[in-house]
Amino acid sequence: MPSPVPSLSVVPVTDPAAAELVAEYFAFRARGWPDATTRYRPTQPDAAAFAPPGGAFLLVRDEGGPAGCGGVRLLTPGRAEVKHLYLRERVRGRGWGRLLLAALEEHAAHLGAREVVLDTHASLGPAQGLYRSSGYREIAAYNDNPNATHWFGKALPADA
Predict the structure, then answer these.
(1) CA dihedral defined by 7, 10, 11, 17, rounded to 10 degrees?
(2) What is the largest CA-CA distance in the chain?
(3) What is the pLDDT of residue 160?
(4) 92-111: per-residue pLDDT in tens?
(5) Would you say the pTM of this structure is higher than 0.85?
(6) Cβ of 98: how many Cβ atoms within 10 Å?
(7) CA–CA separation, 22 vs 34, rounded Å?
C-alpha cells in the first residue's frame, strides 16, 4: 500500500532525479498544449535561482522513488515565485500537490517573502483548482511567460 505521506527534500535543480522530473514536466506540458498554432516553450530552471540564499527546489519521494518536484525563487525582496510544480500521474489525487505547495510557501517565507506568485495555463484546470483552494487569487500578469494565461498571488502570514 502506498505511503500516505511523501518525503520532501531540498535538492539542486541539477540533481539527476530533479532534472528527470523537470524534463518529464516539460514533455507533459508539450503533449497537452491546446493551441495548434503555437508550441509550448519550456525554460530550463536556472540552478542558481532555485538554490540558497534566494530559492529552493524540492523533490517529492515515496517508496516508488521520485514522485514530483517544485521550486520557489525570490523575484524581488518580499516576493517569491513558485515554478515547475509537478507530480507524476501515479501519485496524483493523494493531496501531495497541496503538501508540496505548502512546503514551497514555507520555504518562500524563510527566504523573506511576504507574497507568493505563480503563473499557469487555462488548460491546467486541476492546478488552478489547487491554487484557488489554497488561498491564491488571480492577479495581473507579472511576467511575459508565453505559456501562461493566468497569474495568481497569495499573501503569506506575517508569522510564517
Answers:
(1) 20
(2) 46
(3) 54
(4) 999 999 999 999 999 999 99
(5) yes
(6) 12
(7) 20
